[in-house]
Structure formats: structure tokens, C-alpha cells
Design a protein that fits this description.
This protein has a 5-stranded parallel sheet with strand order 6-5-9-10-11, covered by helices on one side. Strands 1-4 form a two-stranded antiparallel sheet. Strands 2-3 form a two-stranded antiparallel sheet. About 40% of the residues lie in helices and about 15% in strands. The chain is an alpha/beta fold.
């Protein structure tokens, strides 16, 4: 069986839709990219091990993935002679023992034109209404996250400015020059002033793993556009899972820890903080412990910085009666849309935004 003929999307969809595994687009693409890079293509066992490593989080899930692969090998044309497409269900009874998973696959080869089917994978993740773990808006593109695109992100970041005059005086101060000339009666030399520069220090605090896995691409886009188009004086990025519990991390894999108190002391009160998290809205449940822990964290921010806001990748109608809905009463939270991002940046600039009026159900 050639690599491009593997029905991995069928297995992926079965794990999500039939068996409720909280898998996102990133996990699906991770397997495809690993296969393209040459990992897991030596034998059937290697393919199974790769998928178990990425998709299974427990021994039970590991056995489930392997059962699905057993059915795939059983129904593959090379084994059954049946060229038709078979659905995969781990609840089916296997009619016979599958071929040995250690059997080499000489015909199992990489293919340069392998298509990872990202659009189909995204649609599979976002269209499953029965799966409350990753209940998602029906956006259909991976590279451009709607309803806010990379270009719109860059445009929004440009409004995050706090101009301050500093440095060598090189610009003409017209008013001061006119006043000086009126006072002295003659213009001996003009009055100069330092140029304006953006003194904004932005701190991004981004939720990782869990229900945020499908939004990792969005997080990367936010960081990239802030770096490339934000024109900021300084950008710092930290990561956490659900809520910071004493530490933040400099690496998206939650590595290189630093205490929250140290981070807040380093960034200073002039910095502005933008939090990116679904706040539990993707799961659709309510977690009082998470609300209380997040409240403690928000109070720390209030004591350290003047302006901060929250961007939620889930539409606001999904926040109601969830953890996110309660957190949204603690600070300005906006959905990830062009309007929401612009409103969040207005808050970071110190401009009044009545976010409750944007989402009337908060009142």
C-alpha cells in the first residue's frame, strides 16, 4: 500500500466522531508531516506506533487506535482483494486475524505529491456537533483563520501604538519656534524636538494544549503578525495551559518556565498584556476551580499593569453558561474577529470600550 492510499482521515474521523477522542487538526497534520519526512514508513508497526504516539493519551485509546488499524489492514486491497472503500469502526468483530504488524512493506513508499487534506480535516473537526470537547465555528480554511485574516491582524496591530518623543532632537517644533521668534523678534535658530517612536511593550500570554490544540495555528499567526507588522518596541510571548499556576513558559511546548511574579516584575507597568485562550468555551462546560484560579491570576495582572484584555477564539455565543462566560465578567474579553481584535487593542491603548454592550448577555 502506498502512503497516499492510507485512509488516515477515516481513522482520524472515527476516533473523533465515533469514539469522542479530543483530537484537533494539528494532531492529524503532525502524522502526515511525519510520514512525509520519512518517519513511520518502514513497517505497519511503525505506522501504528506513530499514530498511537500522536493520537492516543491513554492505554485504552492506544488499544482503540490499534484496533482501527487492524481493520484497515484487513480491508486493504493488498489483503482482501477488495478495491472498494470500507468504513472503519472499532466496534466491528474481526472475521480473521490481521497480518503481522511486523511484516515489512516494500511497496509502502513516500510520495512527493502527498496531500495532507487539511481542509477536510478542519471540516471534520469543526462540523462534529455531537463532540462537545471541540465544538467549533464552521470556518473552513487552515492557513487563513476566518473571520480575521493575517492581513487584518497586521492592520490591527498597527493601531497598538503609544508614541513618545525620545532621542536626539531632529524634528522642527513649529509652535515653539513661532513663540520664540515672537518673543525675541528674530529667528536665530529653530526649536527642535525628538521624533516620536512607539514605546508599546506587548506581552502575549497564550493558552496551549488541550482544547486549544485546534487554535495553535491561530496563535502562531498572532505572534508572527505582531512580530512582523506590529511596529512594537518590544514583544514578549509566554505560554500556559488553562491558566498560569505559579509559572509561565517561554516555549509553546510549555518548556523554559518562569514564575509569574518574575515575569510581571520584568515587563513593568508600561507593558500591555493580551491573553489568548478559549477559557473553557470549546469544551462547553463549567469549571469553578478554573474560574477561581483565573481570578487570582487576573488580580495579579491588575496590580502590575494598567491595560490588559482577552481574545477568545470561540464565538461569544459559545461562552454562555461556560467557564469562559464567567471569566468574561472579570475583564474585557472579545471574540477572535476583526471587530473583537480592534476592540481589544483599543482597551490596550487605554481607550474606553464597553465590552458588555458588545455581548449583551453579559449584562
Amino acid at each position: 500500500m502506498k502512503l497516499e492510499e492510507l485512509p488516515l482521515l477515516d481513522i482520524f474521523n472515527s476516533l473523533r466522531q465515533r469514539h469522542g477522542l479530543p483530537l484537533g487538526v494539528d494532531e492529524y497534520l503532525a502524522v502526515l508531516r511525519s510520514l512525509q519526512a520519512g518517519f513511520g514508513i518502514g513497517s505497519r508497526q511503525e505506522v501504528e506506533q506513530l499514530c498511537c504516539l500522536v493520537w492516543a493519551k491513554s492505554e485504552e485509546e492506544n488499544r482503540l487506535v490499534r484496533r482501527l488499524f487492524e481493520q484497515m489492514w484487513k480491508h486493504s486491497p493488498a489483503e482482501s482483494g477488495n478495491e472498494g472503500k470500507h468504513s472503519i469502526d472499532a466496534n466491528e468483530t474481526l472475521a480473521s486475524e490481521p497480518p503481522s504488524s511486523n511484516e515489512p512493506l516494500p511497496e509502502f513508499e513516500t510520495h512527493p505529491s502527498l496531500t495532507p487534506e487539511p481542509v477536510q480535516a478542519v471540516q471534520a473537526v469543526r462540523s462534529s456537533r455531537r463532540d462537545r470537547e471541540l465544538k467549533r465555528p464552521r470556518y473552513s480554511l487552515l492557513t487563513e483563520y476566518f473571520p480575521v485574516t493575517k492581513r487584518q491582524m497586521k492592520q490591527s496591530w498597527r493601531y497598538l501604538r503609544r508614541p513618545v518623543r525620545e532621542g536626539v532632537p531632529i524634528e522642527l517644533d513649529v509652535e515653539a519656534t513661532v513663540a520664540k521668534m515672537g518673543h525675541e523678534g528674530i529667528l536665530l535658530e529653530p526649536v527642535l524636538m525628538p521624533p516620536r517612536s512607539n514605546r508599546t511593550d506587548l506581552v502575549l500570554m497564550i493558552d496551549q494544549e488541550g482544547s486549544m490544540v485546534p487554535f495553535h495555528e491561530l496563535s502562531r499567526q498572532l505572534v508572527e503578525t505582531a512580530q512582523g507588522g506590529g511596529r512594537l518596541r518590544q514583544l514578549r510571548v509566554f505560554y500556559f495551559h488553562d491558566y498560569p499556576d505559579k509559572h509561565l513558559y517561554r516555549h509553546p511546548a510549555l518548556l523554559d518556565a518562569q514564575s509569574i511574579s518574575e515575569v510581571l516584575e520584568e515587563i513593568g507597568e508600561r507593558a500591555v498584556v493580551l491573553i489568548v485562550s478559549d477559557g473553557g468555551a470549546a469544551r462547553g462546560n463549567f469549571d469553578q476551580e478554573r474560574v477561581e484560579s483565573t481570578k487570582v491570576w487576573i488580580e495579579q495582572l491588575q496590580q502590575s499593569v494598567h491595560y490588559f484584555a482577552w481574545l477568545n477564539p470561540m464565538p461569544n455565543e459559545y461562552w454562555r453558561r461556560t467557564t469562559a462566560g464567567e471569566i468574561a465578567r472579570l475583564l474585557p474579553m472579545f471574540e477572535m474577529s476583526r471587530q473583537g481584535m480592534n476592540a481589544a487593542i483599543s482597551v490596550l491603548r487605554g481607550r474606553y470600550v464597553a465590552w458588555e454592550r458588545m455581548y449583551s448577555w453579559l449584562l
